[in-house]
Amino acid sequence: MLEVFMHGIILAFGLILPLGAQNVFIFQQGASQPNYLRALPVVITASVCDTLLIILAVTGSSVLVLANDWFKVVLMSAGVIFLVYMGWMTWKSKPTTIDKKAEAYSFKRQMIFAATISLLNPHAIIDTIGVIGTSSLQYSGNEKLLFSLSCIAVSWTWFAFLALAGKIFSRIDTSGKLMVILNKISALIMWGIAIYLAKALILD
After folding, report:
1. Angle at 121 between CA 50 and CA 140, to 5 degrees
2. What's the pTM?
3. Could you tell me which of 116, 62, 193, 171 has the C-alpha nearest to residue 124?
4. Cα dihedral angle (30, 36, 41, 45), rounded to 10 degrees?
């Protein structure tokens, strides 16, 4: 069970780490709001959206696989390819410079914008359905539940940390250099998960 838990943690962390639109917005709101509590609407909204996507991915993928055995092979193969590709794109990406003077959105505006970039983000959808949903296929019962909960826990923890980091880093580094390092780490994690997924596919 520990291996299942760690698989979910590492996979979700590798996928959520790159500095995309969602992370940039949460980071900037953390940096621009007068205090951390005022950035909680964006943190909670993004976390709830990710939770919904993960639940849909895990349950939806299971239904498709039960209907078509070959679909598991297709999904897992696509997941490996996608992880390798995303790892490469993340490795060579150059994040946008963080703007500590970004506008501090109101509670309502934070929630609307966060929901939009979370639920209408193609990368987020592909990450959850194509990778997390695919990876969950090797588990069932309590193991699948634990895997799902570990992925969800990463989303909540990461977004909460990101808003806090925005407040701290806005006073330390606005060049984006730290995010470049984080992207390199994320790429390595994604490649590692691709190998793990490929191994599971071959041995199944």
Report:
1. 40
2. 0.71
3. 116
4. 60
Give SS3 for 198. helix
Pull the structure tokens for residue 38: 């005022």
User: What DSSP assignment string belongs to 33-76?
Assistant: SSSGGGGHHHHHHHHHHHHHHHHHHHHHHHHHHHH-HHHHHHHH
Burial class (CB in 10 A: 0-12, 13-18, 19+), 173: middle
CA distance 21 to 19: 7
Q: Convert the pLDDT of each residue in 102-117 to its tens digit.
A: 567 788 888 998 888 7
Distance CA 181, CA 186 (A): 9
User: How many domains is the chain partitioned into structurally?
Assistant: 1
Chain segment 72-95, per-residue pLDDT in tens: 677 678 778 877 887 787 687 665
Using alpha carbons, list the distances in angstroms from residue 171 to 30, 31, 38, 42, 183: 12, 9, 18, 21, 21
Domain that includes residue 176, residue range? 2-203
First-to-final CA distance of the chain: 19
Cα gap 83→89, rounded to integer Å:
10
Token pair listed for 195: 């190998």
Angle at 4 between CA 156 and CA 87, to 5 degrees: 65
Cα 196 to Cα 24: distance, rounded to the nearest angstrom: 29
- Are the beta carbons of 83 and 131 closer than 8 angstroms? yes
